[in-house]
Amino acid sequence: MAKTILVVDDSASFRRIEIMALTGAGYEVIDACDGVDALSKLDQLSEQKIHLIICDVNMPNMGGIEFVTRAKQNPKFKFTPVMMLTTEDSDGIKQQGRAAGAKAWMVKPFKSEQLLNAVSKLILP
Amino acid sequence: MQTLAIEGEMTIYTAADQKTALLDFLNTDDVLEINLASVNEMDTAGLQLLILIKREAAKLGKTLRFVMHSKVVLEILELSRLTNTFGDQVVLSPNEESSR
Amino acid sequence: MSFDKDMQEALDLFNIECTELLQNMETDLLGLENSADLRQTINAIFRAAHTIKGTAGLFGLDHIVRFTHVVESVLDNLRDDKLSVSSALVAALLPCCDHLNILILNVAKGSLEENAALTESGNRLLDELRPYLETTTAIESSDLVLPNHAERIETIVNDAIEPGNWLLFLQFGENCLRDGMDPLSFINYLATLGDIVDLTTFSHAMPEAGSMDPETNYLGFEIILKSDATKEAIESVFEFIREDSLIHILPLENRIPYYVELINSLTEDNAQIGELLLKSGVITQRELEEGLKAQHSQAKTQEIPSRIGQILVDQRVVQQPLVNAALEKQQQIKDNKIRENQCIRVDAERLDKLIDLVGELIISTATASLRGMKTGDIALQEANANVISLVEEVRDSALQLRMVPIGTTFSRFQRVVYDVSKELGKDIKLVINGADTEVDKSVVEKIGDPLLHLVRNAMDHGIERAELRVERGKPPQGTLGLNAYHSSGNIVIEVSDDGGGLNRDKILAKAVERGLIPAGITPSDQEIYAFIFEPGFSTVDQLSNLSGRGVGMDVVKRNITELRGVISIDSVPEQGTTLRIQLPLTLAIIDGFLAGVGDASYVIPLDKVVECVALTTDDNHDFMELRGEVLPFIRLKQLFNKKGTAERRQNVIVVEHLGLKAGLVVDRLMGELQTVIKPLGKLFEHVQGVSGSTILGSGEVALILDVPTLLRQQELSQILT
């Protein structure tokens, strides 16, 4: 049973590469371009489980931290691991994110390999 | 002898409900069997439940066996090196493939 | 600079380093059986071999790496107590040192590849080592993995792989499950870094069923991980959950010695404990930073905050023995720094150049001073005097630069004594005294060969066989002494043995037989012993292949004379013999006394001059009376066939050496000077009575008189007439 990952990023090209890497490693990927889009994608899910949310911090419409806070209010995603991606290694943002329930953080840029390593720390095969 | 078959996942999402169910099951008989053949996902929370229920059974002097471990369960037991500690006979469940 | 030149320089350095390392290794091997601190000695030997291997690898000198690797394996077994020290083992390892020396010498000569003959002799030596290698350690030289420098550390790990390198204690935060961070997932990922040799799941933190929260994590894990990954890499596995968890990563107990060794072998300048632990990989940057942070906050509340090592141990990021090793290393680095500050390696050629220049400077100063005198300008003369005294200081300092302890020369004899004892079947120990006595480098270089001969001679002929020694009431083990000390501007080197002593009568008889001395004369013991330095003189009935063929002692004497030295002998029958070599501290510059004879000038070494007296009336006697003693004359005018009438007022310079006194008759006394000795050309090498020449401030050439030789000739002519 393939594990499903929700990828939220406003950069289409970045999503593309993430999707390529993750599907290449055998994960199923659902993608969204911002927090609003992501919430609606989550709402559309019926039975399907999300095993990991990978989410950019800075996005138009709804940023990552707000999205995670909201998503975690849904009992279906209360315990879902979240990995936040940032372009800056700022403790302030991390604090906010951690409070919202995002414990894993990665600073862009990184290689696909690093992304996959991080993902496999967070999801059992 | 009573048998309980666990269906679907044993994860943090199901742990609260399953804890109650398992503890209730413990009171049904002195010789108990839990069929793990249909467990298709498991995490640390699920493993904790298995540990808990084994411990409680031993405390109550009851015989509790895990049987028909699914591949997912076996992998978790191997990872935590608890297969021997639990001491249950381990065979690959015949309906393993279909359960996934 | 071209690559070739860089490479050549690097190779030259390699050569010097290895020669030193091998020298130390040899000394240590020889001392191994009697070592006070066996472990340390073994470690030192191991490190020497290890360093050679590591550096050779960097140069791509695979044959040296291959050879050293096997030697190192044996030493490793020794270190791990899988072998015990035995003379057989030492005897097998010593030739390996020699072989390495040859290999390295060949490298220095430019052959970076091994030749077939050397490979063969090397393999023979390695065969000798085979019994000391475990069967599991393959000596298949062809398929040895040759480490390059960067892989060195990894290689150590691979070489000595033991089950598990790291011990991990993981107690994840109780909220981790709710946060979506699954401990098992991290452990599963950890398995990609290496092999999880052992894992124990702890669930004792889990409360009664009633109060157990199924969404709370209660599990802890203890993991033994076999992995080549760094501690940093292992730590990073847990980066997402570090904040809420207790995570300790420690080198496994049985790996501690490895890390201790690693800490020891660090080539760090930074002597801080934290840095040392960090560089050896037993702690990570983060652990260090947190430790320092803790220390910092302690400093606010406590008078004396804990040492960082203690904090790291308390925080369970490192074990005490490793902190201890780092502390030791820290001390060692400090010591080295002090030593480094004291010592720099300087090309001997540059030093020689400096000495040459100082020599020229002295001559030029003399010229300037001479000119100054002629002007009658007092201020100029004072200035000149100042310059002269400074130049003298410069000279002394420059000469001091060339002074090296004689110990390095002496310690070479450990091996000689060991080898020769074995060859002769005698049990002889070497006792060295005054190893730190300093002497000019040029002297050290030239004294090796004569000493070697004297040592061999003493062992062969001086020290008796054990049975005879016991009969004479002496311990069966013979003692050979090498002793050095300073005595009135000279260095004295003694080679002593507690053997049978010289046979005075036998030598005398032989001397008479060879016509070296007329029969019926009884010279002093000293004089008799001196005959053993005559060419072809040997009283030994049986010749051994070591010495005793009568060649050698005369060569020894010639060598020492060339060094402006003197050799003398003390001997007590059945008690032993001491050969005493007296050498000038330096060969380059002497303080001299300038004297004129006719139109020529001569320099007499000042340390030989006792006094000067005027010869008021010359009645052509061959001696004069000086305070009730007869003082024989050496008339330089006659000696050097100088023309010209004698000055009306002549002078006598009284010279003395080893109790012999004579008066040198000269025309003019010209005062003291310090002067640079220029060796005589090949053509004049055999001229007796002259040890060198020098250029005077005026540009004139002056001969330097060899007073000891003159005195002995004078004495001999008296005996014979």
Task: Please tell me about this protein's structure.
The complex is a heterotrimer of chains A (125), B (100) and C (721). Chain A is 43% helix and 19% strand. Chain A is α/β, with parallel strands linked by helices and 125 residues long. In chain A, helix 2 packs parallel to helix 3. Chain A starts with a strand and ends with a helix. With 100 residues, chain B is α/β, with parallel strands linked by helices. Helices cover 45% and strands 26% of the residues of chain B. Chain B is built from five helices and three strands. Chain B has helices spanning 15-26, 44-59, 71-79, 83-86, 96-99, and strands at residues 2-10, 31-42, 63-67. In chain B, helix 1 packs parallel to helix 2. Chain B is globular and about 30 Å long. The relative contact order of chain B is 0.20. Chain C has five domains: 3-151, HPT domain (Four Helix Bundle (Hemerythrin (Met), subunit A)), CATH 1.20.120; 166-339, no CATH class; 348-402; 404-584, Heat Shock Protein 90, CATH 3.30.565.10; 589-720, SH3 type barrels (Roll), CATH 2.30.30.40. Chains B and C meet through helix 1 and helix 2 of B and helix 7 and strand 2 of C.
Short summary of the structure?
The complex is a heterotrimer of chains A (125), B (100) and C (721). Chain B has five helices and three strands, in the order E-H-E-H-E-H-H-H.
Q: What labels describe this entry?
A:
heterotrimer; B: 100 residues; alpha/beta; Transcription Regulator spoIIAA; 3-stranded parallel β-sheet; disordered C terminus; C: 721 residues; alpha+beta; Four Helix Bundle (Hemerythrin (Met), subunit A); 5 domains; 5-stranded mixed β-sheet
Question: What would CATH call the architecture of the largest domain in chain C?
Answer: 2-Layer Sandwich
Largest interface: B-C, 22 and 24 residues
Q: In what order do the strands lie side by side in the largest sheet of chain C? A: 6-8-9-11-10
Indicate the multimeric state.
Answer: heterotrimer
Strand order, largest beta sheet of chain B: 1-2-3
The strand count of chain C comes to 21
Total count of strands of chain B: 3
Order of helices and strands of chain B: EHEHEHHH
Please indicate the count of domains of chain B.
1
Our Rg estimate of chain C from Cα atoms comes to 36 Å
The CATH class label of the largest domain in chain C is Alpha Beta
Biggest β-sheet of chain B: count, sense, barrel? 3 strands, parallel
Mean residue pLDDT of chain C: 79
| Poorly predicted runs of chain C | 135-163, 541-551
